[in-house]
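Name: Cytochrome ubiquinol oxidase subunit I
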Amino acid sequence: MFAEADAVLLARIQFAFTISFHFIFPAFSIGLASYLVVLEALWLRTRRQVYLDLFRFWVKIFAVAFAMGVVSGIVMSYQFGTNWAVFSDRAGPVIGPLMAYEVMTAFFLEAGFLGVMLFGMDRVGPRLHFLATLMVGLGTLLSAFWILSANSWMHTPAGFELNAAGQFVPVDWWAIVFNPSFPYRLVHTVVAAYLTTALVVGGVGAWHLLRQPRPEAREAAAALPGENPALPPSQAAARTMFSMAMWMAALVAPLQILAGDLHGLNTLEHQPVKVMAMEGHYDSHPDGAPLILFGLPDDARQRVDHAVAIPKLSSLILRHDMNAPLDGLDTVDRSLHPPVAIVFWSFRVMVALGLAMLALGAWSLLARLRGRLYDWPALHRAALAMAPAGFVAVIAGWITTEVGRQPFTVHGLLTTAESASPLDAPAVGASLLAFIVVYFIVFGFGTWYILRLMAKGVQAREPAVDGDEGPIRTAGITPGPAERIAGGG
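Structure predicted for Cytochrome ubiquinol oxidase subunit I:
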């Protein structure tokens, strides 16, 4: 069935499919690991049970998401050798060490302390356990650091020279790691992960607030989360997580928009063709470019049909001058154009969801000022509807970034067509179908399990990951607590 297909296109689809699945889990686990650090720090400082209950609730979800992220990441990395062998050969001297640094620093740090974080609270003491949680959180950030450094180098390559075999050979590791787009991409992606996690936490809190009976007394509704003794533990936990998530949305969404603007200006400097595609600018505008809000890009005719635009606003955003000239795709050879329609619409999806996050944060501030944060069902329904928005936004942003780089894998130096392995289309197509079937079964079940945990909610005196009876022991080797007491041990 794939005999007439394009092997390179199938390899691109396969990588896009697997990395889209993979990206969902790190985008969640990066923010959730930091959230767990905050929860445990608050518990150590205040000793309020609600923070410990929330920690134990979310650490179970983190464990599942982390495991799925590791599995999906391993599968994705194998494709560098199977489908993209030429890329691995030519860019390997740069990309290989960066990915190895990620394993040796970030993944080893996470894996080394993960077991202590999951199972060690009652065994190593609260302070040492907090150190383990802190190390896991740091590990997720280090992982993002190295992976984004490698990815950013592919967009803005620096610190290398080409040898006789056409390989990218490192000459300046500082320039490679801290390449021109890396700081902007790191901040934008990590903040996106925090917002993604905040929306999920807020959505779970909103779900349980909607399911719980509304308090009869206005004082109960206005009380600080977890401080009203009349509130049951599950309701106190729902209020606490919802309040914390809405603070994150209100404070961080504006910062993310600022970070996105700076990232866009950096992209305009180093990858102007990508920005042309994002803006839908087929033609140059010498006297100020319009901001096209909506339209239907037509690559064949090199125009945007049915465009709804605001005159000169694009120049104001990109150049901070309404009359600043902006080049269009008419200044670039057609063979170097990315697929404009995909980049155009994925960018708008990302921006629209970012503005929706900003609106949700502003709404929560209004509710907080009115003392209605916990008894405004419309706000809770909006937060619940926005729960998956962060995942959609990060995928849309990834599509904008990676599709906008086409037709290159290493921008301006190595094309996608040159990077592919010499495979026949049926071989790539068969593995693509296998990935689709396995991913939807395995990760579909994992996602269903996470949703079940979220729907269950926080219980009073939330049990730890391994319950209250300690780890399962092999029968006849190590006696459990009851046997030791009975035997006088």
